[in-house]
User: Fold these one by one.
Assistant:
Number 1:
Amino acid sequence: MTIEQFIQTLPKVELHVHLEGAIRPETLLKLARRHHVALPADSLEGLKQWYVFRDFPHFAEVYQTLSKCLRTVDDIELITRDFLRGQAEQNIRHTEATFTALTHYRNYGLPFDQQLAAINRAREWGERELNTSLLVILDIPREYAAPEEALQLVQWLAAEQPAGVAALGLGGYEVGFPVEKYQAAFELAYQTGLPAILHAGETAGPASIWSALQVGRSVRIGHGVRCLEDAALVQYLRDQQIPLEVCPSSNVCLRVVKDLASHPLPQLLAEGLYVTINTDDPPMFNTTLNEEFAKIVRQFGLTRDDLQQFVLNALCAARLPNERKLKLEKELIENFAQRA
C-alpha cells in the first residue's frame, strides 16, 4: 500500500477548517447563478484559476465574494452538505468547522437560530448518510465585529444552547485586533460553560497566544506555530498539553513561513507539544487534509504511526460527548491495529 493509499483509507479527524473557506468553486458557481451575482469568471475552469492563492489581498477578495453569495439559510445548508461530502470522500470521520454567523447576520439579516438550524439539518444528514459528524465553532471576526456584536452572539448562545455548537471562536487578522477587545464576550462564555477556541500565534507572536489563553481561556489554539518564539510559552503549552491546530499549507500561503521546508512542525513535535494537522481554507490553499498528510510525510519523513497519532490527538481534543468520542476512538484504534 502506497503512502497515498494509506492516507486515503486512514479514518481522520479535522479540527481547524472554515466552513465558508471550504466552499468549492463548483458550489460558488451554483450559488452565484442562484442569486445572479457576477463573479470574476463565469466558468468552472475560470473560477478554479481565480481560486488559486496569490497573496493576502486576493485571498480576502475570494473570501468576501464567497460570503456575499450566502444569502439564505438554504445556501448555508447547501454549503454544509457539500462540505460534508468532501470530508466523507477523504474518510474524515469527525470535523469541527469554524463558521462566522455574524457575517451572514450582518450581510443579509439571517437570524442565528435559522443559520444553525440549516447547519444542523445538514449535520444530521451527514451522520445518517455519510457516517461523518460535524460540530461548529461560531467565531467572532476580528476585523469588523464590535464588542457589543460579539457579546450579542454569546448571549444568544448562552440563552439557547443550540445543538451542534462546539465552542466560541475568534478568527481573522490578529495584529491590531487583540483578544482583550472582546473580553466581556469571552468572560460571559466562560461563566456560562461555553468553551472558547481562538486563533492565535499565526499573524502575531506569543503575546497573542498568551492573551488567548489568559483572557479568552482558549482550550485549544488555532495555529499557534509562533509559540516557539517564547520558551516559557512552549513550556506552558507542553505542561498543559494544550492542542495546537497546525495548518501547514495555510502557513506557507499566508507567509507565516517561507516554504514548507521552513515550517516549524518538526520543532513543535521535538518540543513535545500537542499537535494536530488541519487545512484551514482548503480550496483556497489548493489542498485537502489527505494532501496535508502526504506533504508532511514527504517533507519531514514522518511515519504512518505519526499520522495515526495526529488523528488520535485530534479526536482526543475534539468537543464530542464522551460516549461518542470513546466509540469513535475504539473504531480508530481497531482500524489502526488492522494496518500494523
Note: Residues 3-334 form a domain with the TIM Barrel fold (CATH 3.20.20.140).
Number 2:
Amino acid sequence: MSRPLLMSLFDETERRPLSVSELTSQVRGALENRFASVWVEGEISNFRQAASGHWYFTVRDEGAQLRSTCFRGVNARIRFRPSDGLLVRVRGRMTVYEPRGEYELIVEALDPVGAGALRVAFEQLKERLAAEGLFDESLKRELPLLPRRVGVVTSPTGAAVRDIIRTVERRTRTVSILLAPTRVQGEGAGAEIARAIRALNEHHLRALEEGLTGEQVDVIIVGRGGGSAEDLWAFNEEEVARAIRASVVPVISAVGHETDFTIADFAADVRAATPTAAAEIVAEREDEIGDYVERLTHGLFNSARYRVLAGRARVQEAAMSPGFDEVRMRLRVAREELDDARCRLENRAGDLSRAARRRLEAVRGKLSPAGLAASASRTRVRLAVGGAALETAARARLEDARRRLGLAVASLDAMSPLAVLGRGYALAQDGRGRVLRSARGVGAGDSVRVRLAEGSLRCRVEEVEEN
C-alpha cells in the first residue's frame, strides 16, 4: 500500500530528485515494455536516407505526428522505397531517443495502404532503371541468325525447361541446350538467377579464349512458368536486370504468361510471352531458312529446266537453218589456213635451230682448253706489267708527299712563336693570361707572367716606363 503523501514529503529517499538521464531512462523502459510491438497507420513526410543507409521519416495524421527510424538491415528487406505523401501501415516498437528526450518508432515492417507493396516496388524500380537508360532500345542487340548453343537459366525441375527442350527438339536438330539450374522463386532466388547469367557468360568468354567454337553460347533464355506476383518477383530484382544488361550474350526474357511483365522483360534484348515462345524464337529462323532454301531449290530447278528446253529448241531451229552450210565452209577454209601456218612455223623453227647450232659450235671453239690457256697467259702478262707500273707510281707519289711534308714542317717551325722565344725573346702576359703589347696595360704592383723559350717567370711590376 502506498505511503501517505504527507509522510513521503519528509522521507529523504522520496525527496531525492532524479537526474534527467535517470528519468528519461525510466520513461524509455516503461515505453518499450508497454509498446514492444505496435501497428501504426499514417502518411509519410520528411523522408530522407542517411549516408549510413538508414531511413528517417515522420508518420503523421491530422492531429499528431510520430518520428520513425528504419535501420539499413530492415529496409533492405522492404520491397519499395517510401516517399512523402505515401499512406503506409507501419509495425515497430516504441523507444526514446535519450540525447533529445524524444520518443520515436523503430520500424520493423512497412506496407503501403491502398496499393500492393509489390506493385509499388515494381513501378519505383522500373522508373529508376528507365531513368538510368537501362531499358533504352539502342542497347537492345539482335539475336544470332542461326544459334547453335542456347543457355537456359531456369529451374531444372520446372515445366519451363521441359517446354523449351521439347520445342527445340521438335523444330531443329542443330541447336543444343546448356542449362544453368537455379531457383526461380523464394528468398535469394534473384541473386541465384543473376549468378547463373554471369556463369553462362564466363563459360562463353572462356570458350572464346580457348577457341572452342562448339562450347560458345549464342543466346540465353531467362525465365520460368506462370505464377502469382510473389512467385515471379525474383525476376523483378534489380540485380537480375543489371546482370541481363551486363551480359555479353543476347538475352531473351520468358517469364510467366503473355500478360505477365517483369523488370527482366524490359532489360532483356527480346521478350518472349512464354518459355515455349522463347524456344520457338531461337529455332524459327532455321525453319524459315530451310523453307526458303527449299523454295529457292525448286525455283532454280524449274528455271534451269526451262532454260535447257529453250536452248535445245534454239539449237534445233539453228541446225535446220542454211547458215550452217556457210559455217562448214568457213571452218574448212580456217582448217586449211591453219595447216599452212603450221608448215611455215615448222620451217621457221628448223632454220632457227640450225643457226643456233652454228653459233654454239663457234662459241665451243673459243672455249677450248688451248684457247683458254693462251688467253690466261696474256692476262697474266698484262697483270704483271700493270702491277709494276702501279708500284712505281705509288712510290713516286709517296716520295713527293714526304718532300712536301718536310717543307710544310719547316715553314710551320719558322712561323712558330716558340721559335722566336728560342732566339732570346720573351712573351709577357697579365694576370688573366692576355698578351701585353703596351706598358699602359699594367700598373705598379701588378703580377705579370713572362714566358721564355724554356719555362716562365712570375714577376711583379715595380715601375712602368712609357716611351
Note: Residues 420-460 form one domain.
Number 3:
Amino acid sequence: MSANACEGDHILEVLSQTSTAVTAPPLDRALFPIVRHWSYCDHAAVGPLPRPTRDAMIAALDAQMIDGCSGILRMEERKTDVRSRVAAAIKAQPEEIAFMRSTSDGALLVANGLDWRTGDEVIASDNEFGANAYPWLNLRDRGVRVRLIRTPHERLSPQVLDRLYGPHTRLVAVSYVSFCDGFRHDVAAIGRWCRERGILLAVDAIQGFGALPLDVVSGNIDFCYFGTAKWLLSPQGLSVVFVRRDHIERLRPTTFSWRSVRAPMDFLDYAQELNPTAERFEGATINHPGLAAFGMSLDMLTHAGLGAIERHVLKLTDRLIRSADAAGIPVLSDRSVDARSGIVLLGAKGADSDSLAARARERHVGITVRDSGVRVSPHGYNNEDDVDAVISLLAEGGP
C-alpha cells in the first residue's frame, strides 16, 4: 500500500467520526479568555494565548525583574527540558532540535548552510508562504535552479516529482499544510520518494503542527521548521528547527556565534570546537520568556493529545464544509480525504473583502479575509457555535 493511501486511510478514519455531533473540545475552553468575546477561527494567522501560557511568560519576566541574573539562569535551565519535550512530540531526538526566532530562520539555515553547486535544483510549489520561498529563490544567484510546481492545477506529490526531478535535483521544499487553502501534503509519501533517491526534504510545518501530529522519522524529513505563534498557541519570536542528526555536521552554521561552541561560558577560548548538536545553530541567547510560554502550551497540547485535537478540528471543518454547502457558500479548498487539514478556504459569496473583514471584526468573528477567499482555521478549543458564527456571517453575502 502506498504512503498516500496510508495517509488517506488515517484521515478517513478521523472523518468517519464526523457524522455525529462535535463532542466536547479536547482543549479546555475555560483556559482561553478569547472565547468570552470572539468566535475565533483564525489560528492560521495568530494563535491566542491560553491563560496558563500568558502566566508562564509573565513569570519568566518577573524572574528577571526580581532576581536579575539568577532569574535568567533559572530560565536557562528550562531550555533542556523544553527541548526534550518538543523532540518527543515530533519523534525526534533532543540533539536534533534548535530554538530560533521564526520559521524563516529554519529555511534560511538550510538554504544558506548547504554546500550548493552550480546547476543544483530545488523543487517547491508556487504558492508557498514567503518564509519557505525566498530562502530558496535567493539561491538563484549562486547558480541553483528553483523549479516551481504550478498550483492548484497540480500539487507536490511523488507522481509530480517523478516528472520533474533530474540528476541535479538536490532538495524538495514543501509545507506540511498550505497557508492559503489548507492543502495537506502527504509528507510521508514525499519523504519516502526523496529518501529513495538521495534527495533532501525540507518541511515548513507551521500550518500543521499543533492541530495535526507531526512525525519527522516516519516522514523521512531531513529538515523541519515551525514558528510557535499560530497552532502552537505561543508568543511570537520563537521557532523550532529540526535537523536530522546525519546532517548537523554538513550544515554550515550561518548564525555562528558564542553559543555555537561546546562551552559558551568559557568566553575567551576562541579555539573551541562547535557544539556537536543542533544547538550550535542557535548562535546566541534565545527568547527565554517565549520559551517558557511555549513549554506551557506544548504541555497543554500534548496532554490533550495531538491525535484528539486533530479529530476534533477535522470534525469542525467537516461541519463547516457541510454548512457552507447548505448555505450556498463556495468551498475552495480541496475536499479529498488525504488533503484535509485545519484550514478551509471559502468563497465570500459576493461580499468585497474590505467590507467583509470589517463586519467580521465588528462581530468578533476571527477569520482571515483576502481577495482569494475567506480562510477559516478552528483549533482544539473551538466548538460548533464558533463555526456556525462564521457561516452566519458569510451567508449574508454582499454588503
Note: The CA atoms of residues 39 and 386 lie 5 Å apart.
